Amino acid sequence: MILRPYQERLVSRAVSALSSHGNTLAVAATGAGKTICLAAVAKEMGGRQLVLQHRQELVRQNLAKFRLVNPDARCTIWDAERRSFRGDTTFAMVQSLFGHTDRMPRFDLLIADEAHHCAAPSWLKIIRAALDKNPDCKVIGFTATPSRSDKLALRQVFDNVCDQITTGELVRLGFLVPPRAYAVDVENTAQSLKAVSGSDWGEQSAIEAILNTETVNGEVIRHWREKAEGRPTVVFCATVAHAKDVADAFNDAGIPAACVDGAMSAGARKAVLDAMTQGKIKVITNCMVLTEGWDYPPVSCVILLRKCFRKGPLVQMVGRGLRTVNPREFPGIIKKDCIVLDFGSSLITWGDLNADVMLDAREKADDEDREGPAFKTCPECEAEIPLSSSMCPFCGHLFTEVEPAKERVELTEIDILNMSQWRYVDLFGNGHAFMACGFDAWSGIFSRDGETWFAIGQQKKSRVENTLIGDRAQALAAADDFLRTHEQGKTAQKSCRWLDQPATNKQLELLRDYNCVPAPGTTRYTAACLLSFAFKYRDIARIIGVPA
Predict the structure, then answer these.
(1) 448 within some domain
(2) Domain range enclosing 140
(3) What is residue 337's three-state secondary structure?
(4) Which end is more exposed in the chain, N or C (fewer Cβ atoms within 10 Å of the end residue's Cβ)?
(5) Cα(428)–Cα(30) distance, rounded to whole angstroms?
(6) Model-level pTM?
(7) Which residues, 6+ apart, have CB-to-CB distance to 519 below 8 Å?
(8) In terms of Cα–Cα distance, which of 8, 20, 5, 4 is closest to 375?
(9) Local confidence band at 52 (pLDDT 50, 70, 90 cut-offs)
(10) Do residues 323 and 183 both lie within one domain?
């Protein structure tokens, strides 16, 4: 497996920070592939490792993705049912381990997933036990939302941020769909919300009093119908009672909806979520139940019916709707964007969806680094943070002037082509068909109209797959990911040698057999892409819906 360029950047910076500080925090927005980064850091660092997570589903997910990057690693699990430290890497549930820290062996690396929880006593107990057993144990955390209401809490574990992958960067690159956001003020509710203080976690009764009215609920239904009708939708409400009332309002309007809450059994909650998967309901309402740990990629509308007192919960909530859709998993679903309807003034309050640690500077070459550091020191707590940060994630210090990044890089779909290990060939010169080839797989993007794009690929000895339907940037991202998954760095480098070599006589003969007249100077690589297209034309035509 080959990492995305920004993942390689994060891993490099993380390893460097661990060497110099002994700890570091990596901030990766939802959809960045933080588990892949986690696994790559573990591979680089080596030694005996402990991976901490607080939900059972994360143990399974992290282990599966870890093995994609480290297929030969010996992994064991410590949870309520399985308790083993025999592997090189142990994936442990915090709730199961914190009462048994005396049984922990000596670890060389501790990795905290969803590291914004590290301030909790159970997490701190495990981290301190690991450091007691081995003072040289390195500690790294991964999170999408580093800031906490208690601000100084994370400073107990981390004193620096090695890198951040922002939501904006992932949208520009096509790995997330863009949000189309609308702030809705019903009868001056925005002004009323300004006067309310409170917490993001738990019920917001004062917020409910403002937003759970017949008028507001009516406007929720009206705006949903105007801007998002038919879209799988998740609604975040102020209280459980509020969530139930909003679900009732949708049902009364003839729109199938259901509510999930923390008091429901696992089976009952699963039944509701399965009902959306099966298309039986279009809207799920909740009060902070689906903020973390739930992903249903077809969700393409998020409604905010609560106030976000911090940016972190806002990022988590909107993030439920930003994932792209794999057509193999969800046939017939085309997702190009996500509608966000904000009735709680959170988007206006916070302005963007990037976490408070901002990083736009790209990694420089060694000779460029002499021009100045990519990081700065917080004057309050002395944490090392990215240069362009507007707020310290550890102590909350606000910088009166945001220092500009040394170099701002606007990452676009062209950057994907240029940064890729593979060259995408414009097959017919019309900008509607591009293909790249490795040794073990090929991938390409195709469009009938220039608006809707299909990412299609094939691994050697496997069938042709449709991996995404979306806009051009999203299709390019999916195509590149397909090759990264099925190729290795060495084979990618070998294919690069073909870029400037002339096409072989055999290739030219085969192209003529397919009534394709190669242009003068056609390279071996371009010929390989054209032949891959010719060989699989019927499959590609079937997927994009054109006559074969």
Answers:
(1) yes
(2) 5-166+357-386
(3) coil
(4) C
(5) 36
(6) 0.74
(7) none
(8) 20
(9) very high
(10) yes
Average pLDDT, stretch 503-510? 89
Element (H, E) at 529: helix 524-535
For residue 256 the two structure tokens come to 């199938």
How is the beta sheet containing 338-342 ordered, strand by strand? 179-183, 338-342, 301-305, 233-237, 283-286, 257-260
Stated as kind and residue range, the H or E segment containing 252 is: helix 240-252
User: Minimal CA–CA distance to 184: which of 338, 370, 345, 37?
Assistant: 345
Instruction: Judge whether residue 83 has pLDDT over 70.
Output: yes
User: Tokens representing 488?
Assistant: 């290795």
The answer to whether residue 405 is domain-embedded is no
Positive or negative torsion for Cα 516, 519, 520, 522 = negative
CB proximity list for 37: less than 8 A, separation 6 or greater: 3, 7, 10, 11, 14, 26, 28, 142
- By C-alpha distance, which of 83, 86, 41 is closest to 59? 83
What residue type is 333 in one-letter code?
A: I
Q: Tell me how far apart the alpha carbons of residues 4 and 150 are, in angstroms, rounded to a whole number.
A: 34
Q: Could you give the C-alpha distances from 404 to 147, 269, 381, 408, in angstroms and in order?
A: 21, 46, 21, 8
* Encoded tokens for 339: 């509608």
